[in-house]
Write a structure and sequence with these properties.
Its main location: membrane. Belongs to the FliN/MopA/SpaO family. InterPro entries: CheC (IPR007597), CheC-like_sf (IPR028976), FliN (IPR012826), FliN-like_C (IPR001543), FliN/MopA/SpaO (IPR051469), FliN_T3SS_HrcQb (IPR001172), SpoA-like_sf (IPR036429). The protein contains twelve helices and 14 strands. It has about 375 residues and is an alpha+beta fold. It has two domains: about 220 residues, CheC-like (Chemotaxis protein chec); about 70 residues, SpoA-like (Surface presentation of antigens (SPOA), Roll), CATH 2.30.330.10. Helix 3 crosses helix 6, helix 3 packs across helix 8 and helix 5 packs across helix 6. The protein is globular, with a radius of gyration of 30 Å.
């Protein structure tokens, strides 16, 4: 194994943690519930990403249950001096933050060779710009599908910027990548990734502590509680400020007015000891009688090329967060659909039809058995 390759001992050391990292992890910067939540977020998102990687490489991909711990960049830099490939992934919608994925150089070479259709994997060669470009595109699709899973978890649209790849060490990364700058605590989520008989390695995800806590709080419902508390505090502060600036009398005579009677009257106000005349009257709106006879006979071909997303729903269910946190490989989730019951079909989220599942060659399909009446007459 040459100098730019990571040994198994070294990757185990950095991903499983030294004694110093374990001691730091005991500082309880985040609680066990938050750690479990982050682990489950990583498990779901990386599980989806693994499915995408399997499709791209045409290989079976397995990612194990994640391990979550707290560390710092300085500790990682001191223990991990061999170059690796860092993929910088920034969220541009739904979440405000970024994270870094760390891969071994040899794993990136193997992924590139498989994508290029090479029969043999050459790990002795130097890492090239083609490798970095290839892994960036792979991560773009993997993390894109991961963002889709996160959208379902957080119940809002989440999207990412195109990932950027670097061949660096942690020491070099502190100068180039914002997340790696400074020595603030950082959350490390490590996975074991197996790709066919090509890759059996460890990858890790680095997330700034504040961003990690924000994601955990959103999923656990703490963000709404904090926003509500902040809003109550702001209202209380505003009331106190008003009470300090004005003396409120309990006996203020109020003369009832009739706007209908006084609509043509002129109201005089005194502003800064100067009289200003203000005219008050009802607004006048244009009236429309009858329906317009104007019609349009344009061909429907004008909109015929607009894409519409068709979705077939197998079923639904509701679970508590506590139950979801207990999920793992092999967990069976019971849906609300019975065997043989028609499936719902949606066009851009609108319910339009029902159908039954069929198999076309190696793919699933759905045969429409009923069109919804409201859709036909709309």
């Amino acid at each position: 194994m040459n100098n730019d390759m990571l040994s198994q001992e070294e990757i185990d050391f950095i991903l499983k943690g030294s004694d110093g990292e374990k001691n730091e992890d005991n500082l309880e910067l985040i609680g066990d519930v938050e750690k479990d939540t982050l682990g489950e977020i990583g498990n779901i998102s990386m599980g989806t990403a693994a499915t995408t990687l399997s499709t791209l490489l045409n290989q079976k991909v397995t990612i194990t249950t994640p391990k979550v711990m707290i560390t710092t960049i300085d500790r990682l830099a001191g223990a991990y001096q061999i170059p690796f490939v860092a993929i910088d992934v920034t969220y541009k919608e739904g979440l405000e933050g970024a994270n870094i994925l760390i891969l071994k150089v040899d794993d990136v070479k193997a992924i590139t060779d498989v994508l290029m259709g090479k029969e043999e994997i050459h790990l002795e060669r130097e890492l090239t710009d083609l490798d970095l470009s290839a892994v960036s595109e792979v991560m773009n699709q993997m993390m894109g599908s991961s963002a889709t899973s996160l959208s379902e978890i957080f119940s809002k649209k989440i999207d990412i910027e195109p990932p950027k790849s670097y061949e660096i060490t942690f020491s070099e990364g502190k100068e180039k990548i914002d997340i790696l700058k400074g020595d603030q605590p950082i959350v490390k989520i490590s996975f074991r990734m197996i790709v066919g008989n090509i890759i059996d390695s460890e990858i890790m995800q680095l997330i700034p502590l504040d961003f990690a806590k924000e994601m955990a709080d959103i999923l656990l419902g703490k963000e709404e509680e904090n926003l509500s508390l902040e809003k109550d505090n702001e209202v209380s502060a505003a009331v106190e400020e008003i009470e300090e600036d004005y003396e409120v009398s309990e006996e203020i005579p109020i003369k009832p007015t009739n706007l209908a009677e006084d609509e043509n009257n002129i109201t005089k106000k005194k502003i800064d000891n100067n009289e200003e005349t203000v005219v008050v009257k009802k607004p006048v709106f244009e009236t429309f009688n009858g329906k317009s006879d104007e019609s349009y006979n344009e061909s429907i071909d004008l909109v015929g090329e607009i894409p519409v997303e068709i979705t077939a729903e197998l079923g639904r269910t509701k679970k508590k967060i506590g139950e979801i946190l207990e999920y793992g490989p092999g967990t069976i989730i019971e849906l609300d659909k019975l065997v043989g019951e028609p499936l719902n079909i949606y066009a851009n989220g609108k319910f339009i039809a029902r159908g039954e599942v069929v198999v076309i060659d190696d793919n699933f399909g759905i045969r429409i058995t009923e069109i919804v009446n409201s859709y036909k007459h709309s």
